[in-house]
Every structure is written in structure tokens, then in C-alpha cells.
Batch of 3 targets.
Target 1
Amino acid sequence: MTNQQDNDALTIAAPHFIGLLMEMEHQARELIATTDKSAEELRILLLGPKSELGKLTKQIRQVPPVDRGNVGVVVNEVKESIEKALQKKLSAISDQLSAPNDWFDVTAPGIRPPEGHLHIVSQAITEITRIFERIGFTRVRHPEVDWDWYAFESLNMPPHHPARDEWETFFIDYPGKPPASRADLERKEQIVLTPHTSNGQVREMEKGSLPIRMINIAKCYRRQLDVSHTPMFHQFEGLYVDKEVSIGDLKGVMDFFFKGYYGPDRVSRLRPFHFQFTEPSFEVDINCGVCLGKGCKLCKDGWLELGGSGMVHPNVLRSGGIDPNVYSGFAFGWGVERVAMMKSGTKLDDVRLLYSNDVRFLEQF
Ligand code: DAH
């Protein structure tokens, strides 16, 4: 064998050499991650002169001279990568050593999770219900999607009556024909998202038991969205029907509510107004909580407007099957959001905030 042949036999091709290096790097990192040998032991084992990598490095002379530079770069990269893995192991161990003990004080108070509370509108609904309960009004539920009949017609507002315009109503078409067994639905064919809680009046009368003392609190919907309106809001509707119910009873019930809800200094007044479903009709004002009726920047003349009320119109009693010659009644309907905001004293400049679900805002109430 010539010298030349001898040298050829000892040549290691660069790709093969690099392949061996990669394989070693992989095995070394795996060992570092899984063994419980110390970092120092590992350094000798993996990077020392007698290590596999050390032995291989010495054979770099067998790589053809043209490739030796590149292979040398890879050797250094592999060594650095193993060194980094060793450093990482070392610092993880020192972290563990400097970490506080696993010991913990079982008597120490726990961390309180953040606690929620009811939305201001839900709080108001509960409080309104409780106050009226004390004078015998029971909270009832009536549909929030209802026939036009209950929302308008039965309340003395036939189709196309101009008074309806005020309610900016969402109408829904009845899908298909009303059930044949309920022929009377013919006149009720149109469905609405209730624009007020007054639809509960005739529904309550239809239950057929007298006297009536109901408080209907529900969602209402109108085609309105601006700083003082949301398309969904809440109203509470009171209805009292019995023999010899008078405006005096209406005034008494209102004052009872205002004193219970706003405090003993508050009184209400009735201001003549017009609604199709009450005769006479009133708007209800409450004396201003800031100046107690003297007149200030908030109220101007000492009074704040709350909502509508009146003596139930004879036609409405008739719609509910009640004889207006024997029975009379009063009704009122106010916005829950408005009533609640007046209590909290917050001059909300945008009522939409109530429904924007921003916890920072809602936490205030
Ligand atoms: N439903 C009326 C509205 O939404 C408010 C109202 C006025 C209700 C007079 C009543 C009432 O029961 O008697 O504007």
C-alpha cells in the first residue's frame, strides 16, 4: 500500500464528520436534560479531552483541507450549544437553592377572588319589587314579545292611531297563519317587541281575578339609540283595579314608593298630560333630591320628571273584560334606569354605559 492510499483510507468526508457532530450534540443535550449527574461531571464527560467529542475533534485533520475550516465552525457551534445547556442546568439548580421553602402557613388568610355584585338595574328591580310588596302589589311577568293587541289596540290605540308613533316600535311578522283554534288571534296578527310594560295591563285583567294589584317589571324595546336611549331598557308598570279607586289612591301609592326608594324628604306631584289609555292622565314629578324643591342647576324649578300615570281608561277596562261602571283603577309606568340613576345621584351623560359591560364603570354602583 502506498502512502497515498494510506492517507485516502484515513480521510473523513466533511458531511460525514458534521453528521457525527450533530448526533453527539443531540445525545449530549438529552443526557444533560435527563441525568442527575452534576454539571461539573457532565462538563468533563461531554467536553473534556477524553470525551467522545474531544476524540472526534482530534480527527479533524482527516477532513480534506478545503473543508476543514467549515467543519471547525460546526465543532465550535456544537461545543457552545452543549456549554449553554450546561449553564442552563446550573442556573436552574441555583434558582432552586435560592427559592423559598415549600413550607407555607396554613393559617394565613387566602387571596380573595374578585367579587362581583348585581348590576345597578337588577338592584333597582329588586328594591322596587320589595317596596311595592309592602302595600300588597305582587310582581308579575308578562310577555316581552307580544301581540300588537296588548301593546296598543287594547289600550285604546287602534291601528294607525297617531299616538302610536311615540313608541318607535319594532314590529315582527307572524310566521304563517295564527292557529285555527284561536280565531280571535285574527285581530292580533302583528307581533311587537313590547315598547312599554303597559301590555301587561289587559293581560292581567284577562286573568279574571279582582282586585288587581300588580307590578309588572320587564324589558322594553324601541328604535332609539343615543346618549339618553338604548334600544333595550326596563320599565315597571303598576296597576290597581278595584271598586272606588281614586286619584288620591294613586298619589298615596306614589308617595309611599318615593319615600321608600328615595328617602322621607321626597314628595311627588301629578302634572296633567295625555295618554290614550288613561283618563285623566298625568306625568309624575318628584321633588329634586339636591335642593329639595327650591330650584337648582339640576332641576331648574325644583321638580324632576319620572314618568306617566293616570286613571285607567274605561275602554281599557272593557278590553280586559271589566265593567267600568263598577270598577275603576289607576296605572303608572316608569323607566327603571331613569329611576335608579336619579337615586344614585349620578348624572350619567351617556346611558349606553349601563349596557357596555365595562367593569370599571359598573363597579361604582
Ligand atoms: N306606557 C307609557 C310609556 O311608556 C307610560 C305610562 C303612562 C304607563 C301612563 C301607564 C300610564 O300605566 O298610566 O310612555
Target 2
Amino acid sequence: MRHLMSPLDLSKEELDDLLTLASDIEKNPKKYAHVCDDKRLATCFYEPSTRTRLSFEAAMMNLGGKVLGFSSADSSSASKGESVADTIRVVSCYADICAMRHPKEGAPLVASMASSIPVINAGDGGHQHPTQTLTDLLTIRSLKGRLDNLTIGLCGDLKFGRTVHSLIEALVLRYSNVKFVLISPEELRIPSYIREDVLKKNNIEFQEVERLEDALPDLDILYMTRVQKERFFNEEDYVRMKDFYILDKQKMELAKKDMYVLHPLPRVNEISTEVDADPRAAYFKQVQYGVYVRMALILTLLEVKLPC
Ligand code: NCD
């Protein structure tokens, strides 16, 4: 039985197969409409979510399966003191696969060790968010036609943004010649374990800069992120940081004609709504790719026999 805690749980070949399956699902959705008729997905979300939870549920429904779950710790027995290990033992009796989001780093891993069904990490604190990374990879591959030889700018909260951590790890360790421009205020720089153990250790070309304007002209992809309010220790620091970057029409003029803008969403102020009409704004397309890739992931982890 396999779980997904980090994008690196998939080899390069498995990752490519999964993205290819997701693209086939996009082209032939009907073919997959009943492949999970007898399966159930549990969504155990101890932290707020719109896209991740609903896209998992939509993915399972698109495959013909059923869904059950809870969307906050308050509405589960966690509020009575139940451990994630006990909860997953119980959920294993009701469902075939579980997507779990938790504010504590490592909680889905603890759950996976007690589980008798595959567990998918749907975001653990400021650590990892592997299914957002699969979404991002599918989006980039679909729009640019490749995942190698790219210059990617990541902008905003690089310290607490778990989507950034997972995406960098996957691109560095599974693809080649990807360069990074890390755009953040001093206080929200990338954690040192990513800088040292992932980027430097693998001799990856990267720069850390503060001004978005300086980075924009060189980028193939700009990955914007929200300042992660819920991970700050005090409100004052958050207020100081929250509007540090605002991508607007004027800044978009500095970018290449084929530079796409991605964002895991939710957006707060970091992308002005005037950018939405720009053909390079890909963040809502990205949401759709998130459904296809989660369908492909469910099929892969459940080892469902694929239709020909
Ligand atoms: C992200 C997350 O939860 O980490 N959202 C998502 O899953 N699409 C990003 C965020 O909350 O800023």
C-alpha cells in the first residue's frame, strides 16, 4: 500500500506517468466516469480549505466514487482529544483512501503509519503540499510543454508557503536545468533546509531577491503566493508583510509574452484582479488541472485497472 506525503514519494517515471494519465483524463473524461464506482474517499481536514478538499471530492465523484469526511477539527472527534492515529484507524473502516490536511507538520505521516488505507498529505502546516505540486507540474507541463529548462520565480511567503517547498523539491530532484529566482522580503525567505539541502546540495542556480520588478523580465513562470497569516506569531508582523507584493498590469508589462502566472490560491491582494484578464494569468486554469491530477493520483494509489 502506498501513501503520498511528499512529491518525492513518486519516482521520475511515476511522476511522468501520473501527469500523462491526468492529461488523458482531461481529454477523455467519460472513459474514467465509472472506474471507481465501488470506492470511497474520506477527506479529513483539520484546517480550512476550499480547492484542495473540493477538488479531491470532485475528483472522486468524476471517477464514479463516493465521498465522506469532515472539514474542520471542530466538527470531528479531534475536539474531544482523539489522536490522528485513532481517527485514521476508524476512517480506514469507512473508506478506501483518505486525503488529510492538518496544521501540524508530520500529522498525515503519523496517520499513514496507523492506516490500513492509502493516506494523501493534503497539506501539513508550513511543510509540504504534494498534491498542489502535482497540480502545478501538470499546469506548467500543459502550458509550456516541458518541465525542464525553465526559469521559475517564486514570490511572496517563501518561509511558510508549503506549496513552494514541495514545488522546489520536485523540480530540483525530478527535472533538469530549472533555475529559481526566490523573491521575498528578508523575513519571509526560504527556509534554510531548502536553501542548503535542496538547492545548494544539488548545485542548482538560484538567486534571492527582494524586488519583483528586477526578476520579472527573465522568468518563464511566476509563482505568486499569499502571505500565510495563520502561521505568523503576531498580527503586527503579518500586517507589515501582507501587501509587500502586488502584481498588477504595469508590472506584467515587464514580463515575457509567454510567462505564465500561477498561484495556488486563495489570492488576497498579491495579484490585482486587473491581471485576471491577461492571457498569461493561469491561476484559474490551474484549479481545473488540480481535479485531473487528483483523479490520476486516486487511480494510481488505489491501483485501479485503467480502461483501454
Ligand atoms: C495553499 C495551501 O493550503 O497551502 N492553498 C491550496 O491548497 N490551494 C496555499 C495557501 O493557502 O496560501
Target 3
Amino acid sequence: MSFPEHRPRRLRRTPAVRRLARETHLVPSQLVLPLFVREGIAEPSPIGSMPGTVQHSVDSLRRAVADAAEQRIGGVMLFGVPEVRDAVGSGADDPAGILNRATEAVVAEVGDALVVQTDLCLDEFTDHGHCGVLRDDGAVDNDATLERYTAMGLAQARAGSAMLGLSGMMDGQVGAVREALDAEGFTDTLILAYSAKYAGAFYGPFREAVDSQLTGDRRSYQLDPGNGREGVREALLDVEEGADVVMVKPALPYLDVLADVKASVDVPVWAYQVSGEYAMVEAAAAHGWIDRRGAIMESLLGIRRAGADAILTYWAVEAARWLRAEL
Ligand code: PBG
């Protein structure tokens, strides 16, 4: 009888050894909470496809962000749901538009206690639901969209947003917005580039959350799910254009892209655990088919392990509470 030469199980024997041997850690400051604010409502309105989340009124948003700050998460990402939409998304750069008004209110409430971030994209504000403006033939016009993005970026910076989340996947968007910000003196405003954002089914529940008007799809601007190297290329271009942080989205189906991007850039890399990822776990848990807390924490840790320095997740505050209780 020969004994095993190697015994990796020694490192797993007791909770104390396992804790000491753990390679990847998750802390509240690595979590960013996406939040929706809807124009014209007085009370929060539940989002059916994302149980546990709501569209906020400006008032309830302010309270939600204060709560998030108390839990010491890293930040919040704000999305606006306007009452009126048009072809060019005029509400996006209107200082009185819902997202800009809400940003001002939130920053007045929490200041720098956490990083207040805003979604910079036209899809919530256009009546056709696309992330840019359209040409006569119906195609998304890249360069005309950049002009809208720079106007939107300036409006958000003026409203007090600390970090602009460029999620529209237009070519040159990071460079265009960076240049416009710098020219107006907003040299401290951060840019989070949704660099490797994939077209697919996992944004389904989000479309209800923002009351999306989209018919068709976003495949002419978001990435093809089969392409990993193209995601890395997009991230490299965004860094070159001045992105402070690059992101991969969705998270779980794209962990390989996340790891490759992490190995390729020297800026922080974040991941967005999107609405479909959230809804899958919530639905299974509601049926009693999965351990909700276990699945949530395992997915977040897996995303960290693959290379994410921070994660946008609808569970940010709840996960932060659990993490704090475990200390
Ligand atoms: C675009 C945007 C989307 C999401 C975040 N920013 C929607 C889309 O690209 O269709 C999706 C987030 C999620 O599904 O949780 N403004």
C-alpha cells in the first residue's frame, strides 16, 4: 500500500485553513448597485421580471442610495426612465430630464460617500429604443450618435455624476466623450467603458425595467456572442481612447472574455451581472430549486475569480449585508 505523495486536501480540512487558503475575496466596496428612476411616479413600482427590484421615484431613489452608502458598497449606477421619448432622445441631455434631475438629487444626498455613476446611452430616451440616432434607412448612425453622447455626457457631468457609464457600443464614443469633458473642464469625471458588451438574450428583464421601446435587436453595434478576441480588441481601443475602467457584460456567460481582457489591459476591469443572470437565480430560488444566497455569492465570487475588480449587480446591497455579517 503506497501513500499519496500529494495531499491538497490538507488545505481544505478546517474552516480556519480554508479561510486562510482562499485565493479570491469579495468585499462590499467591489459592488456597484444599478438603480432605475422613473419620471412621474410618486411611489416605487415593482419590476415583474426582476423580483425584488423596483423603478424608483426620485425620493425613493434618494433613500435607496443613502442605504447603499450605509452598506459601504462601491457605488451606484443610475438609469432613467422618462415619460416622453423622441427620435433623438432629447431627455438625455436636458438638465431637467429625469436622469439628470435624479443625479443631482442623489449627489446632494450622499456626496462622495459612494461613487455615483450614470448610464450614458440613448436607448431609454429614444422612441425607437435604439442606443443611437437613426439614419433615414433605419440604421444606427454612429457619428451622429457621438454628438448626442457628448451632449449627454456634459449634462451628466454638470448634474454631478462622478463616472459616466458609456454603454452604447458606438465606435469612438470614449474618445469623443473624454474630449468633450476635458474641453469643458470636467477632467476629473471618470469614464467607465462598457467595452465588451454582447448582444443577446440576457438583457430581457432589463427591457421591462426601462420600459424599452426596442423592436429588432442591437446586433449591428453590440458584440456577437461567439467572439472573444473582438471583446479584447474593443477593450484595448477604449483604453487607448482614455477609458478609466473597462467592462465586460454580461458576466457569467463571458468569464473567458473577462479573464482575457484582465490579462490584456492595465486599467481596472469590471463586469456587469445583468438582469437575465439575476432573474434566473431569483426564479429558480422562488421555486425552491436552488439555494438563493449560495448561488448569488458563488456567482459573484466566480466573476471576481475570472478577473473582475468590481461587479455591477442588482444584489449589491444584500450581498454587502451578508459579507459584513460573515466578518
Ligand atoms: C443600455 C443598457 C442595457 C443594459 C445596461 N445598459 C440594455 C441593452 O443594452 O439592451 C442592460 C442591463 C441588464 O440587463 O441588467 N442602456
